[in-house]
């Protein structure tokens, strides 16, 4: 079954296998004559990246790439990317890759026209209004994983390398003008990345659905996103060339990012400090901390997740949903505890202090206090 579609929610999405070949056309359509392709170090030499550069080059748009991007991109990567953008006279960005490449690419396009430091645009109140809109370069996003959904997001997560904290940088113009979702680009993803990114998409949908804020559209999108992950992530992991499963996972990733306009929660609040300090894979970290957070939130989400379980075809209400999550993690080989990712208990106090001020903490259905965060980290790291 071949899935092809054109969407304009939340931005123009060109969805379908092989549609990366349209890359140059969409760059030209948004006014780019000399785009800078931004991706991460691992992707830079790969065939899918070189093919994208070939497509741009053949259309007379050059083949300039910036790939000095860490797994958790920071302001040093950003400064280097902005310098390349300005020095090269570029007029747009092709943000290419997983969350790190997409987030940094969007930030480069944004910061190319700013004079204030990146931290002045953190997602706090109306800080985004400080930006000079005229200098923001257009963005075409091309995801190569199915997880973060950054290709349809209005923010980037940038790590402050001095404080080792992840900061959410927000501006409406972070939203790419065009997104090309080509599931063929995800076929070569290693199994562990398929699992980690897929569980990230599930975490986005789960937390958005559980968030107490009012946003019925996001609520519905989150619910259907969970169903797509439930039915297709095991398939994509079992057979990486299953293009139908890869397509549905790419949809689920975008849906998760659209849905979390409604809010995220403690899964992300715990995961962000771990990733910032230990450089773990964000999606895999989310998957590890998911069950303790579900137990913590149970009093507030039991009925809501029972309804979700019914829609997902899971018997047993909240307990059935919880058991499904445990079973999915086991099937996919997700570690049970953070200790298996190399995380010790020696920095719990520091991580808990970071978690409770993380922007995602405010969307948790139950208040994430310092005491609760410490207790959750202890549960997540090792078996008592």
Automatic annotation (TrEMBL):
Signal peptide start and end residues: none
Highest taxon, organism lineage: Bacteria
Keyword field contains RNA-binding: no
Domain Fe-containing alcohol dehydrogenase-like C-terminal as annotated: residue spans: 194-378
Domain Alcohol dehydrogenase iron-type/glycerol dehydrogenase GldA: 10-183
Keyword tags: NAD, Oxidoreductase, Plasmid
PANTHER family to which the protein is assigned, alphabetical: ALCOHOL DEHYDROGENASE, ALCOHOL DEHYDROGENASE 4
Family note: Belongs to the iron-containing alcohol dehydrogenase family.
Protein's UniProt name: Alcohol dehydrogenase 2
Upper taxonomic lineage: Bacteria, Pseudomonadati, Pseudomonadota, Alphaproteobacteria, Rhodobacterales
């Amino acid at each position: 079954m071949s899935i092809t579609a054109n969407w304009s929610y939340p931005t123009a999405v060109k969805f379908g296998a092989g549609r990366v070949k349209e890359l140059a056309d969409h760059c030209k359509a948004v006014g780019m004559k000399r785009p800078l392709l931004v991706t991460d170090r691992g992707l830079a030499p790969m065939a899918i990246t070189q093919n994208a550069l070939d497509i741009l080059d053949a259309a007379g748009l050059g083949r300039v790439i910036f790939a000095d991007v860490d797994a958790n991109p920071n302001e040093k990567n950003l400064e280097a990317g902005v310098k390349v953008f300005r020095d090269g006279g570029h007029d747009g960005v092709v943000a290419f890759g997983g969350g790190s490449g997409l987030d940094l690419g969007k930030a480069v396009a944004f910061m190319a026209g700013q004079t204030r430091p990146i931290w002045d645009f953190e997602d706090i109140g109306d800080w985004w209004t400080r930006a000079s809109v005229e200098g923001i370069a257009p963005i075409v996003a091309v995801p190569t994983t199915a997880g973060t959904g950054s290709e349809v997001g209005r923010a980037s997560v940038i790590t402050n390398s001095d404080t080792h904290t992840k900061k959410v940088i927000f501006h409406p113009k972070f939203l790419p003008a065009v997104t090309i979702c080509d599931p063929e680009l995800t076929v070569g993803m290693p199994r562990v990345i398929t699992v980690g990114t897929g569980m990230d998409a599930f975490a986005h949908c789960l937390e958005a659905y559980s968030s107490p804020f009012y946003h019925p559209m996001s609520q519905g999108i989150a619910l259907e996103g969970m169903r797509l992950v439930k039915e297709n992530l095991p398939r994509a992991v079992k057979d990486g060339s299953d293009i139908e499963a890869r397509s549905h996972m790419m949809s689920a990733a975008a849906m998760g990012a659209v849905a979390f306009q409604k809010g995220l929660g403690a899964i992300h609040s715990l995961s962000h400090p771990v990733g910032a300090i230990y450089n773990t894979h964000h999606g895999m970290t989310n998957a590890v901390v998911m069950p303790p957070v579900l137990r913590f939130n149970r009093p507030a989400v039991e009925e809501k997740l029972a309804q979700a379980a019914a829609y997902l075809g899971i018997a047993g209400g909240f307990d059935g949903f919880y058991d499904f999550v445990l079973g999915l993690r086991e099937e996919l080989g997700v570690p049970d505890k953070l200790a298996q990712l190399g995380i010790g208990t020696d920095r719990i106090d520091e991580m808990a202090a970071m978690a409770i001020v993380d922007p995602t903490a405010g969307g948790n259905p139950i208040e994430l206090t310092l005491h609760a965060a410490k207790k959750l980290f202890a549960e997540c790291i090792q078996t008592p």
